[in-house]
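Hi there,

I know you've been waiting on this one. I reran it after we fixed the sequence typo, so this is the corrected version. Both the input and the resulting structure follow.
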Amino acid sequence: MWKNRSKEVFLGAASSLILIGATSSVALAAANPTSTGYAQIVQSLTHKRLKLVKTVPTGINGLTGLVTQNKMGKKQVSFGLDGKYIIPGPIIGTNGKLLNAAIAAKAGLKPVPMRKP
């Protein structure tokens, strides 16, 4: 049980670090909530391990879906807020549904089932 709990704590801490890093390290890009601005933030925070493939409108004021890709070609969805913050984790709407899944579908990404051990 403590293993699952430590993963939650680690992910929460990592998310906080990314949010803090976005505000402090890329002030110039933060003023520009466009694809170019988010591309600079993603490149800076991931030390060029991820690149921004495209941005996807969410329909929520200030929130932008970000499709990123690693060097192996794996794509993932995260979010940008007001051109200042990166939100790597899930976003859950008041209806209880994950916004991540809706944005992934809108971006044309298909879910990959987990392998059985």
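Quick highlight: DSSP finds four helices and four strands in the chain.

Best,
R. S.
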